[in-house]
Amino acid sequence: MRKWNAGLAASRPVIPVIVGPTGVGKTAVAVSLGRLWPITVISADARQVYRSLDIGTAKPTREEQRIAPHLGLDLLEPGERYSAGRFARDAAGWIGALAEKRRPVVVGGTGFYVRALADGLFQEPEMDHDRRDRLRAWTAEMEGIGRWATRLDPRYAGGGRQRAARTIEVALLTGRALSWWQHHARTQGVMRPWYVRLTLPRVVLHRRIRERVDHMLAAGLIDEVREVLRRGVPENAPGLDAVGYREVVGHLQGNISREDLPEAIATATRRYVKRQETWFRHQLLGSPVVTLDADDPPDVLARRIADLWETRGT
Questions:
Q1: For residue 200, which phi and psi values (nearest 5 degrees)?
Q2: What pLDDT is stored for residue 178 in this prediction?
Q3: Taking the CA atoms of the chain, what radius of gyration do you get in angstroms?
Q4: List of residues 6+ apart from 277 with CB closer than 8 A
Q5: Which CATH number fits domain 4-121+187-311: 3.90.550.10, 1.20.1110.10, 3.30.160.270, 3.40.50.300?
Q6: 102-134 pLDDT, tens per residue?
Q7: Which residues share a beta bridge with 107?
């Protein structure tokens, strides 16, 4: 078996990266891969970093983590901010600290996290801390925050309230769009990605999304959100502003009926999935990409990934 870190003598190791939209089955494939390889999963998921948000983020179970240990879960409390830059710095440390016998595999659907690891970070410009704090208080109450972000940065590609607020913050405090800084002030990435992109026909993925939503609600998603709010976390706090959670918050506020809640979450998820798929189609250029039909069983996909890895070109 080829060692994952045989390239550590070079500047950056080649690391498998399993990507795809929400609901496509990335975790199941990673766990199956963990039965074939001694892996540690680096979770590139902007929602799974939050403690107590387990059901709505589809965190791997204890048994799944026994088979394939995960890093990047439960890093902070809902309401705290976490960025792609911080993820890349943390993940670089995790990868560097892994024992040689364990292979890192990056798994996730947050494209900006993956890109930060593969393509590097941008050096954030200096910003006045007092003005930044006042601006954050303002954006926390802002309606239509995504539209404002698009006006200030035409290349803003969505990604939730936290990313929109950051886009506004950088543009107003520096005079240049976030996308400009990301392009002109970038450092080198910490790995060379070998991408495995999981896909499904739209009708199949939409069916899986609805089944996933029904399962989450049956597992206690509403109670999970109610408990986080009971602890004093604001309703629009980072973490609770994610797809699924913000619809449950709306339900608890009386804006969405229990009857309408499953479809509201499924609709929001389908929209998010469309953005994810667009991102992965256009942002993985310049690196090896293997595209696999995720309609096959996870163990079959894992075996295919292992075989392709062994025969890949260097």
A1: -145, 150
A2: 84
A3: 19
A4: 21, 199
A5: 3.40.50.300
A6: 999 999 999 989 988 998 876 667 788 888 888
A7: 18, 43
